[in-house]
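Same chain as my last thread, 283 residues:
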Amino acid sequence: MEKIAIITDSDSNISLEEAKKLGVIVLSKPLSCGDEVIMDGVTLTYDEFVKELKDGKVYKSAQIAPQIVTDLFEETLKTHDYIIYIPISSKMSKTYETSLLIEREFNGRVKTIDARSVAEFQGYEVRLAKRLVDEGKSFKEICDILEGRGGSAIAYVVPETLTYLKRGGRITPAAAMLGNLIGLKPILILKDGMIDKFDAVRTVKKALLVVINELANSDISPETHDLFVLHTNELDRANELVEMIKANEKLAGFNVNLALIPGVVLCHTGPGALAVGYAIKHK
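reply #2:
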């Protein structure tokens, strides 16, 4: 049987502890604040990172150095026949393009998959890839399955405030000031690997109801999709959102999974953000 390694980055929301249990490899993403650089999920705990954001630190994500990726591939191929690398969406970073250049050096033994996703939905594809490896699927079979699923997840993100979108340059200071003044809460959508504006309403609760209504009117079911709520380690708020979802009769049958919003997304949405999304099950 082929020995296949699965590699991803910390944007996938797979912690180093989970990676060890799963048997996958996670590359930590660098996050910079001025001259200071930290490694996502390594330098600070999740709660420490949230506190730094609340204290006004502005972090930006950066690519993992290509040499680090190359060295990891070389080392991993000493003990494996193939590597499947699942980085953050190609529409959010140049990591995918860079990896395509790197994989040419390995004569078909490395395949970079564009899951066109991020956070738990990127991690969903990583876990699926590992399950397919454990089931004995071939390198080619797994790559074909994963490539056919690219962009299959959709998620809606509701930041608690516009402040962090302004700090990250996602909206202008004037738009943020006006939005905060009149109490607008944006709704962002992750679709086909890109995060864009979906809507804006007056309160967080109304924003969440809009999102739930969108999900209820989507062609999803517990048999064909997995549903997720993402949060910033605020379990009470996350569980309240789960109850709101289950109160909708069209969504009541779902087992809602909870997960954290990873650092690269948190830089832009800020603490207090909530997200709801779904991924297509593989059968």
